């Protein structure tokens, strides 16, 4: 009880000094809890949507079941089954009703201004027929359901986003052609719609416009009669369909919901674990803040601890007293963080809403495990971080403490720490070297991960040793121009190298990751640009932004564009190849022969143009080596949507490429001989070459030709390179945003260190003021000390990060991305920005130091 009282008294006596540490714990726990609440809410939203929209039992053709349906099938039309199956299922015992469904996501819907009505967040545009099952998840709130080919119904969310109203005209673009109709009704979701755009037609129109013919459905929804379970009904339907011989798939409501959840779950898991990873980095940085805080508090209470030891307190009691303070800090910070996490999750939901992904607070999901995990993490991390300072406090002898002599083991511990740090750094450097010289990317990645971990730990451990030399160099450049004030700031930073090293290490971690990712991102862009310059001969590239195939009417417009020397079609065909050692499922890249000019692919044997001869193909180098394939071999190729062909291997392409790496080519005319026209995949991407000297005119003409199809982007090589740069830049900006949490915690660490340092040097500051140091000079001294510590952390972090990034680029070179590009403007900006971070961190401590009463400061014991 005495230990608890002492700890409580000390904690609240230093509550101001504990505040920033508590904020660091709060932020880290809030990020963890916010991530869990946000992803749980997304799961709840999708679960409710899938459960509400799934029938008792759903019957689908092969490839069209929930969970395995290709969102954008290569043919542009979803798999279908005959309408006669509906009538057959109605006669099955236990069936209350059966209804044919038409649904397709390979569509684009535009308004009268030719603006795409689809989501900008990647959510699909769904077109289909209005059925009784839709009433489970939607209700018509305006107008009426479509009654003929000239009418269409749209969901309320899409209508609100794009100011659509009844009577407005919409054009639906599908592989079967363009279909124009006027809005006859608006339907509102009863559950949250995360962002999909939905349009409904009458059944006949949906069959004709989406499936290409009446008499077909993409699914059948079956409702169970009273007293019949979904599982029982499934078995009866399977028995009935067994006699038809078709590859039908039967799923209950639960199976359909689970399959849909699994499909979206992988995306949500990636988001969840990525965000938790960055929260983990923030926790790691927070450890340095907490260690520094308790180390300084213990140092400032040395005499107090000595008195406790002198009147009978044992080492364990002193140790326990400090740990109880840490426990209180962890509990308070974690409780506040768990509450803040809910607010953060709501903020993330609002942010996603502004980007087009709707999430309702009605679905806000806070599981009991979320605050439990946040509390456990916050408390455990805080107590662990305080363990070393607590242990150090317990080892102080009473007489040494009363003399303010500190602990005699400090120097020895510093030497041991430096030795361990150098050993870890050396081992990490060896691992990075092994990664850079690895022959295989998989093996090199393991060495890279090990090298990153060891060098990070090594730099953290050796930080106090590095502080002496690095801070002196930085001071010579930055501080000496400020005269005596600058020299005092330098001495203050060097006074306690362990504290400077720990404070700088907190900033080092975040900036090391920033530098590493900047180098990797810049190298990716530079390498891709270099590969495009070397290999791509086409002037123009046309493709969809969301993975849709190119509809025939758009392809025809492209082929009719004036000023083009040639247009290249490019399709992806699923095949099964019988190799000398067995069967292998692959994708065949079918293209017109001009593709050999549009993409200059190196070959190790044969000529790529020969692969476009009748009944010929190419394979890539690794595939040929793995399966014992030689030039001239004939391979049995089973087309998923056709018959079997025997294709001769006329070329073996090099693996030392980036664009289309691992592709196997054949002429579209060859594929057309074995795949029926109605099952032939549509173009995945198209290329074009302008007539000599007409590049600008052809570019403008091509854009005009495809203006009515906004889902496709026309890019020349400059546009394509810029698109790659923008995509990498967007990804890096997201990562930088997440890393900002760790950097904020590191800044709090600098603020806390300076604040406690000012308290520790109260008497010294009073004496300096007494002999003539002005308030302005005092504040400048503290600001300069903060700047040099921040620059120390930045220099270590940026140097370490560039080393990691350069090593990672060596691994990328094994995949054909061989250009190392150091983004010096970014690196220099971050380094200079670190000085401003130091200035900002010193504002409050410097202001408080300047307000000290000189006489009171001198009288401080």
Automatic annotation (TrEMBL):
Domain called MacB-like periplasmic core: residue spans: 19-239, 503-700
Transmembrane segments: 273-299, 322-348, 368-390, 418-436, 456-482, 503-526, 734-759, 784-806, 826-847
Span of domain ABC3 transporter permease C-terminal: 278-398, 738-853
UniProt keyword list: Cell membrane, Membrane, Transmembrane, Transmembrane helix
Topology versus the membrane: Multi-pass membrane protein
Main localization (coarse): membrane
InterPro entries linked: ABC3_permease_C (IPR003838), MacB_PCD (IPR025857), Macrolide_Exporter_MacB (IPR050250)
Signal peptide positions (record): none
Cross-referenced Pfam families: FtsX, MacB_PCD
Subcellular location: Cell membrane
Family according to the record: Belongs to the ABC-4 integral membrane protein family.
Annotated protein name in UniProt: FtsX-like permease family protein
Organism name: Streptomyces sannanensis
Organism phylogeny: Bacteria, Bacillati, Actinomycetota, Actinomycetes, Kitasatosporales
């Amino acid at each position: 009880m005495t230990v608890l009282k002492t700890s409580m008294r000390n904690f609240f006596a230093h509550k101001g000094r504990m505040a920033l540490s508590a904020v660091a714990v709060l932020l880290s726990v809030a990020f963890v809890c916010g991530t869990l609440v946000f992803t749980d809410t997304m799961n709840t939203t999708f679960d409710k949507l899938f459960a509400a929209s799934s029938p008792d039992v759903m019957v689908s053709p092969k490839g069209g079941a929930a969970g395995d349906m290709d969102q954008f099938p290569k043919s542009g039309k979803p798999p279908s089954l005959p309408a006669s199956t509906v009538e057959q299922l109605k006669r099955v015992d236990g069936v209350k009703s059966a209804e044919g469904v038409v649904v397709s996501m390979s569509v684009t819907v535009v308004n009268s201004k030719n603006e795409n009505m689809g989501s900008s967040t990647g959510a699909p545009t769904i077109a289909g027929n209005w059925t009784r099952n839709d009433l489970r998840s939607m209700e018509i709130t305006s107008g009426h359901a479509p009654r003929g080919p000239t009418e269409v119904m749209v969901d309320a969310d899409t209508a609100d986003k794009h100011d659509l109203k009844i009577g407005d005209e919409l054009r639906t673009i599908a592989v079967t052609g363009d279909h124009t109709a006027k809005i006859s009704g608006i339907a509102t979701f009863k559950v949250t719609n995360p962002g999909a755009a939905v349009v409904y037609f009458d059944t006949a129109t949906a069959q004709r416009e989406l499936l290409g013919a009446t008499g077909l459905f993409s699914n059948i929804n079956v409702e169970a009669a009273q007293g019949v379970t979904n599982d029982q009904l499934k078995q009866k339907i399977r028995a009935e369909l067994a006699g038809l011989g078709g590859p039908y798939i039967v799923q209950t409501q639960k199976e359909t919901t689970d399959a849909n959840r699994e499909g979206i779950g992988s995306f949500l898991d990636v988001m969840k674990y990525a965000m938790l990873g960055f929260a983990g980095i923030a926790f790691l940085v927070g450890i340095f803040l907490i260690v520094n805080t308790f180390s300084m508090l213990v140092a400032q209470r040395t005499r107090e601890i000595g008195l406790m030891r002198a009147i009978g307190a044992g080492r364990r009691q002193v140790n326990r007293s400090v740990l109880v303070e840490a426990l209180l800090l962890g509990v308070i910070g974690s409780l506040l963080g768990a509450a803040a996490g809910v607010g953060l999750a709501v903020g993330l939901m609002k942010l996603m809403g502004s980007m087009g992904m709707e999430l309702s607070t009605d679905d806000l999901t806070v599981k009991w495990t979320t605050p439990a995990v946040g509390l456990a993490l916050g408390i455990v991390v805080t107590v662990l971080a305080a363990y070393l300072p607590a242990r150090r406090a317990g080892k102080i002898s009473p007489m040494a403490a009363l003399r303010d002599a500190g602990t005699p083991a400090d120097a020895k511990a510093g030497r041991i720490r430096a030795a361990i740090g150098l050993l870890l750094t050396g081992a990490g450097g060896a691992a990075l070297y092994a990664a850079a010289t690895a022959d295989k990317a998989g093996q090199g990645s393991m060495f890279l991960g090990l090298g990153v971990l060891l060098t990070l730990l090594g730099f953290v451990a050796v930080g106090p040793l590095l502080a002496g030399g690095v801070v002196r160099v930085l001071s010579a450049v930055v501080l000496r121009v400020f005269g005596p004030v600058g020299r005092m700031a330098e001495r203050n930073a060097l006074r306690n190298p362990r504290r400077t090293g720990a404070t700088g290490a907190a900033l080092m971690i975040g900036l090391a990751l920033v530098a590493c990712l900047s180098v990797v991102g810049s190298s990716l862009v530079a390498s891709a640009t270099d590969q495009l310059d070397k290999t791509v001969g086409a002037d123009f590239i046309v493709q969809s932004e969301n993975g849709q195939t190119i509809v025939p009417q758009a392809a025809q417009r492209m082929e009719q564009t004036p000023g083009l020397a040639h247009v290249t079609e490019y399709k992806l065909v699923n095949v099964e190849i019988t190799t000398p050692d067995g069967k292998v499922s692959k994708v065949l890249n079918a293209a017109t022969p001009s593709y050999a000019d549009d993409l200059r692919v190196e070959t190790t044997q044969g000529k790529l143009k020969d692969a476009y001869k009748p009944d010929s193909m190419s394979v890539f180098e690794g595939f040929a080596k793995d399966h014992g394939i030689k030039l001239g071999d004939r391979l049995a190729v089973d087309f998923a949507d056709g018959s079997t062909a025997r294709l001769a291997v006329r070329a073996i392409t090099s693996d030392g490429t980036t664009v289309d790496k691992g592709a196997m080519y054949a002429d579209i005319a060859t594929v057309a001989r074995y795949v029926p026209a109605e099952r032939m995949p549509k173009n995945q991407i198209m290329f074009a070459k302008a007539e000599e000297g007409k590049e600008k005119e052809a570019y403008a003409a091509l854009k005009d030709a495809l203006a009515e199809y906004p889902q496709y982007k026309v890019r020349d090589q400059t546009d394509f390179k810029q698109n790659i740069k923008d995509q990498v830049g967007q990804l890096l900006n997201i990562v930088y945003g997440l890393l900002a949490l760790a950097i904020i915690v590191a800044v709090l660490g600098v603020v806390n260190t300076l604040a406690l340092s000012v308290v520790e040097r109260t008497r010294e500051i009073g004496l300096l003021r007494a002999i003539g140091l002005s308030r302005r000079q005092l504040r400048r001294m503290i600001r300069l000390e903060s700047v040099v510590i921040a620059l120390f952390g930045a220099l270590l972090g940026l140097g370490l990060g560039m080393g990691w990034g350069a090593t990672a680029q060596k691994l990328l070179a094994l995949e054909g991305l061989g250009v190392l590009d150091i983004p010096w403007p970014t690196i220099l900006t971050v380094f200079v920005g670190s000085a401003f971070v130091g200035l900002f961190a010193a504002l409050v401590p410097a202001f408080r130091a300047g307000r000290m009463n000189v006489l009171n400061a001198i009288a401080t014991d």
